[in-house]
C-alpha cells in the first residue's frame, strides 16, 4: 500500500502542512491587506467644575431625613362591589354553568341597571354574550349529534334489509 500524495507536497510520505487558526494566513500564502486610517482622537477636555448657585437664586427646602423602609400602609380603598348589580354578577357566573340561566339573569340585570342606575352594565353584557355563545354552540352540537346518530341508524337499517332471505 502506498502513502497518499497531497497536492501541496511534492514527495510521498511527507506530512501535510499544519492548519493555522482561523483568521491567520497560511504560511507561504499572500493575502491582500489594507491599511486602515488611524482613528481620530477626541480632544481631552477637563470636565467643568461644579458651580455654586448665585446669591439671588432661590434656596431649596430642607430634605426630610430618611426614616427607613417601614412606612405606614395606605388606608384601604373601598370597592364598588356593593354598588354593582347582583344579577349582572350572577349572569357572568352562570354563563359558564347554565347558559339559559345566564341569559335570564343578564336580561334581568340590564333592566334593573336601566331603572336604578347601578353599575355593572358591562358585566351583564359580557354574561349575556357568553351565555348566548354557549347556547348556540350547545344547540349546534346537539343537532349534529342527533343527526349523526340518525345517520348511523339509517345505514344500519339499510344494510340489514339487504340480507333478507
From TrEMBL:
Record-annotated DUF4190 domain positions: 91-140
Swiss-Prot/TrEMBL keywords: Membrane, Transmembrane, Transmembrane helix
Record field: transmembrane: 87-110, 122-155
Record region (Disordered): 1-77
Pfam families attached to this UniProt entry: DUF4190
Ranges of Pro residues composition bias in the record: 35-46
Biased composition annotated in UniProt, kind: Low complexity: 20-33, 47-70
Protein name, per record: Uncharacterized protein DUF4190
Species of origin: Leucobacter luti
